[in-house]
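Researcher: We're teaching a course module on how sequence relates to structure. For the next exercise, students receive a sequence and then see the predicted structure as tokens, so they can try to spot secondary structure elements on their own. Here is the exercise chain.
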Amino acid sequence: MKKTDVTLIVAIGILICQAPAIWGQDITEFNTTRMISLKAESQEIKININVPESYKYMSLWIAANLNEGDLSVELLDPNGEKKGDFSVGCALSISRPAGTDQENTSHEVVQGRINKSINNPLKGTWVIRLNPKKATGQVQIEIDQHLPGTKKNDN
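Model: And here is the predicted structure for the students to work with:
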């Protein structure tokens, strides 16, 4: 590929990324990332998400990586209606052999995730509910919220 071709491709990429600013459209997006560590956890965990009336779009990405136990994840709207869920669980036990201090050499990591995009989310408090059962691992939650006129498909 010639140097001029690469330069042209880079220039077009920059133009596409800057298009909203060039045409005068403001972009306002709020992002939150949470990391939750679980260590033989069995108690329900609730994460509240405040959605003001002004937000016109919300996307959630929830990922779980477990080394042990089970986990179910639910997304509830402000009316308590379930809008998404998933479960993950380990099939391998990682406990030590009985009567020894020796570590078990078996290891398993189970991953699960959900991506949810919501246009015009209900105003109020959304809830992500984590229900672990002797779960060890991590849960990562990413939340993106947009104000009006900041998503390509808004009118």
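Model: If you want an answer key for the exercise: The radius of gyration is 21 Å. The longest helix spans residues 3-22.
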